[in-house]
Amino acid sequence: MIQHDGRLKAAFESGVFVLRLCGDVRLTLCATLDNQAQRLADIPGLKAVMIDLRETTNVDSTALGFLAKVALAVKGRLGQSPTIVVNNPDVRRMLDVMGFEKFFTLVEAPLVELDALAELPLARADVEAEEEGLKQRILEAHRILMRINDHNREQFQPLVELLEEQLHHTAE
């Protein structure tokens, strides 16, 4: 199992789902992020989604891909785009380069603070971290990022092709 210091916390209150990413968030949390994206699509009474990155020191591209998946999971369902709260200039720069303003409203401070966020348990796939499953999640995340803009498509095409080839050979 790969060690990391990233954590995820979440709360749902008055129709607002809040997901807080803390520390260095990497692919080892992506199954948990994926579970949250799928859960959002089914939450009754969902009115808004806020992703809080104020306690985030780093987010790798795989985790960014799954954040984009969160936005896609609620696209057309909410009256507004999901919000990302980010005050770290390095993390904000990553979001800008990746084109996240296309799917999210980016702000430096939330309108309302929620203090009662529960730590999310790691998804079983994050704990086991088997190689083929990790490759599948990395591939999915980067395919999502490539759909956002041409910069991402150019940046991640070699990685996607490599992973597709490796997974194809594994399947043979």
TrEMBL record:
Record-linked Pfam families: STAS
Gene3D superfamilies: STAS domain
Residues in STAS domain copies: 6-120
Protein's name in the database: STAS domain-containing protein
